[in-house]
Amino acid sequence: MNKIQISLILLIIGIIACKKDSIQYPITYSSYSISGANIKVYTRDGEITSTALVSNVFAHYQSYLTNTVSADISGKFIANYISSDSVELTINNIKEDKRRSIHELAGMVYWEKQDTAWTGRAPFWDMDYLFQYLPLYYNKYNAPAGSGYYQYVKSRDCFFITKNRGDLNLPMFDFVQIISEYNFIQSTKGINNSFNKDGLINFFAGYNNDTILIQSYTVKMH
Asked: Domain boundaries in the chain?
């Protein structure tokens, strides 16, 4: 390799390094819209595909779902990138005490808490198989007899984010669990994850649910 080739290689390396160093922090992203709202209804027999039936179920239970049309999402999520691997989060005007670390894996961005937490789970309440993503640090342990739990989870909480043309997108879904026999309804709004419909096989096997209503949507940040 002659001197000219070596000089060219060094020049290219220098240009790449300069581009990397040219990113100026902090960089702030703020939520500004909700898009891609989609309703799915499932029973033990599978997904309901009738548009009329899905519309009827939605009309009956929409009070348990996020209003993706009128919800004011502006500024509800604020991510302040301090560096390429550190972010400060403010959610509903409350700033988290500690910065989170930033990791990227297989096209997914993880905002991971520094602290590890233990969570006890009651019998028959394991929704992991309904999620496409789990925290990077996540371990399950059997709970001792008499503890009131059947399982403990040791993990570091994560937000899950995808990138799209300079925007950051938070995949979200609302979950409504219905047991008509007991007139039982339980809902969870704003779960930051993507719904894994394949996990419903396990969910219906372990519970007396007859209907599951899912609303998926995306919170966009720029």
From this structure: 25-221
